[in-house]
Structure formats: structure tokens, C-alpha cells
TrEMBL record:
It holds the Pfam family Gly_transf_sug. Keywords: Membrane, Transmembrane, Transmembrane helix. This is Alpha 1,4-glycosyltransferase domain-containing protein. InterPro entries: GlycoTrfase_DXD_sugar-bd_CS, Nucleotide-diphossugar_trans. The chain crosses the membrane at residues 12-30. The keyword Transmembrane helix applies. Signal peptide: none annotated.
């Protein structure tokens, strides 16, 4: 036995050394950030890993969130907000109270030059639409003009994936700020409009495994948006968030000068993890409510200092039951954040300057966010 190991052992050690050299060489040859992103995107304990967070923004995230002086050679990102509401063929969308609150938050808080709602068809007799229609522009979209992923028809794609493609087409053509109808804004995005890069997104997950397409800012003709559109050549409808969250992160690693990544807390914290959804939407104690309100007072209506909006993802069971009565009488973190408070009570306080020369803002005021 001693002779066997004595004869073969050194050879095995040589093989092992060669393998280690190859592994190390491969590691050094690869882009470490792309390698880390691929590891973060592994489908292993995803929900647990996205909750890892050390509350430390990266230097790049800090720079991207900071106010920038205008870039002489570039126009700012258009301060035009885009929402999308889609329904199946031969159907119309009924605007929910949750949709209404998201759009109204943008009207009240974002100082936007225009807010557009893009749709195949909308029930314009809906009470919540009637409340908001004077403050937004309704844009009818021809379903047949939506560019489907290669090899697929538009009608065969899930509505969420149709909306994914439509938002990129809108931003490529017009630029602006796209937001899902479950994104609730707290403050204007003014600081981000002069960003030197042509697109701005935020990380999803404390481990920064992706850039979520629930909020996208871009100049028209953005190269990043164009590359993202081109990536749909490999679209697989069975991999739900590959092109909406994972792919833009990979593109950001490959083309870092094309998009500015923000901290998770700017739009996407807390996350879609079950514990986080409960944290935001279950009742809280009076002490917890007081603590949240103190933060909101300190941070201009937000939970965190650098937060501009909150994506209420994976909260359909809660959002579907929302009503003015629920918002006012049930203290949850979400309800308190979207309810009326002094800093967002009127356009006169948040929207100063919107009624200047060239403004299209109606003088009618939505007095509060939730009434």
C-alpha cells in the first residue's frame, strides 16, 4: 500500500496543481464583477440571499444618486413619467384604487412635465380614472404595433412580458421615467435627470443580483435601452425575470458607462421576500408608527434618506383590498407612507414651479394623496 501511494501520489499532486492553475487563470481572466453577478443570480435560496444587506452603498451608487450639474453635450432625461396599464384582447383595464394611488403619487410629488398612461384599452367610466384623468395624458397603444420577442406573437406573451417590451420601446423613442403601477413615489427624481449616463436604474436585492425594470430612467435613443431590446433575441418566457431584472444587471457589468446603478433603498427596499412584504403591509404598533413618521419627517416623506419611491411588489393580496377607509384606519408601514401628510398635501408645496410658463399642469388641485 505504501509503494502504491508513493508511486502515484506525486502524479496526483501534479494533476491537482495543474487544475488549480487553470482555475485561478480562468478566474483572473474573467470579469470578477460579472462572475459575482452570475453567482448572485444562481437559483439557490434566492429569497434568503436578497435579504442580505449591510446598509452600505457602493461608491458608484453614491455617485449615481448625487445631484449632477448639467452635461453640456446632453439634454437632461425628460421629466415625463410613463405608466402602462394593459388588458387582454377585447378587454379594458379597470383602474384599481392601488393603481390610482401610484399615479396620483406621481402627480402630486414628481413635478413632472407630463404623466402618460399607455394602454390597449381603459374603462374611462371607472371612478378612479375619472378622479385622475385631468392630470394625465391617456395614450392608446395598438397591440399589433408592439414588437414581440423573436419567434413569438404578442398575443402569446404574458401581459407582464408585453409590458416589459412596451416600456423599452417607449423609452427608446421618447425617453423619460417609466414606473410600474405598484411603484409609489415620495419625492421628485430631479437629482437624477442630469445624470451623465443615458440610463438610470436601481439594484434589486441586498446582494444586488439584478437591476429591476419597475423603474427605468433614460434619455431617448439610449444605447443601453437598445442593447437591452436586442437581448430579447434570447428571450425565454419560462424564465420569468431573466430579461426584466437579471439581464439589465449583466448588461450593466458589461457596459458600465451606459447605465448608472442606484442603491437598493432608492426604489426597491424592502424587497419581494415574504418577510419583507409582511413587514410593509401587516399592522404595526403605535411606537413603530411613530418611529416611521419621524423618519418620514426627517427624510421628506420617505423611509430612508436616499429613498425616492417604493415598489410594492408581491403584495397583490394587500393592494387588491385597498380603499380610502383601509388606508386611513389601518396602520401599516405602506399605508402610512402613501397616506396624506403635510409635506405632500398640495401641489402648492410639492409642485412649485409646475404652473410657470409652458406648464400643462391643470390648476385644479388634488388636495390629498388618499382622498
Amino acid at each position: 500500500m505504501t509503494v502504491f501511494f508513493g508511486a502515484v501520489g506525486p502524479r496526483r499532486m501534479v494533476y491537482f496543481a495543474i487544475c488549480m492553475v487553470l482555475v485561478v487563470s480562468l478566474y483572473l481572466a474573467l470579469d470578477k464583477r460579472l462572475l459575482l453577478t452570475r453567482l448572485n443570480q444562481l437559483s439557490i435560496e434566492v429569497e434568503r440571499r436578497i435579504q442580505w444587506w449591510n446598509w452600505q452603498d457602493t461608491p458608484e451608487e453614491i455617485s449615481c444618486r448625487a445631484a449632477h450639474n448639467p452635461v453640456i453635450s446632453k439634454d437632461p432625461i425628460p421629466n415625463i413619467v410613463h405608466f402602462i396599464l394593459l388588458a387582454g384582447e377585447e378587454k379594458e383595464v379597470d383602474m384599481s384604487y392601488a393603481h390610482f394611488l401610484a399615479i396620483k403619487a406621481a402627480v402630486v410629488r414628481m413635478n413632472a412635465a407630463e404623466i402618460k398612461v399607455h394602454t390597449y384599452g381603459l374603462n374611462t367610466a371607472n371612478q378612479w380614472w375619472k378622479e385622475i384623468e385631468k392630470h394625465v395624458t391617456l395614450v392608446h397603444v395598438d397591440r399589433n404595433e408592439v414588437q414581440a420577442a423573436p419567434g413569438l406573437s404578442v398575443s402569446s406573451m404574458a401581459l407582464a412580458h408585453q409590458a416589459d417590451l412596451l416600456r423599452l420601446a417607449i423609452l427608446a423613442r421618447e425617453g423619460g421615467i417609466y414606473m410600474d403601477t405598484d411603484v409609489y413615489t415620495f419625492k421628485p427624481f430631479t437629482d437624477l435627470l442630469n445624470n451623465p449616463r443615458d440610463a438610470v436604474m436601481a439594484h434589486e436585492g441586498g446582494n444586488r443580483y439584478g437591476l429591476c425594470n419597475a423603474v427605468i430612467m433614460a434619455r431617448p435613443g439610449s444605447t443601453f435601452i437598445s442593447k437591452w431590446q436586442d437581448s430579447y433575441k434570447t428571450f425565454n418566457p419560462q424564465v420569468w425575470n431573466e430579461h426584466s431584472v437579471r439581464k439589465p444587471k449583466k448588461l450593466q457589468i458589461q457596459f458600465p458607462d451606459l447605465v448608472c446603478p442606484l442603491s437598493p433603498t432608492v426604489f426597491f427596499w424592502p424587497t419581494w421576500a415574504k418577510a419583507h412584504v409582511l413587514y410593509m403591509h401587516e399592522p404595526i404598533t403605535p411606537d413603530e408608527a411613530a418611529s416611521l413618521r419621524a423618519n418620514m419627517t426627517a427624510f421628506g416623506g420617505a423611509m430612508y434618506e436616499n429613498q425616492l419611491a417604493f415598489h410594492a411588489v408581491a403584495a397583490h393580496d394587500y393592494l387588491s383590498t385597498l380603499s380610502p377607509k383601509v388606508i386611513q384606519e389601518r396602520d401599516t408601514r405602506f399605508n402610512i407612507l402613501v397616506s396624506c401628510h403635510d409635506s405632500v398635501r398640495t401641489f402648492a408645496r410639492v409642485g412649485q414651479g409646475r404652473d410657470g410658463p409652458g406648464s400643462t399642469t391643470p390648476h385644479h388641485i388634488l388636495q390629498t394623496l388618499t382622498t
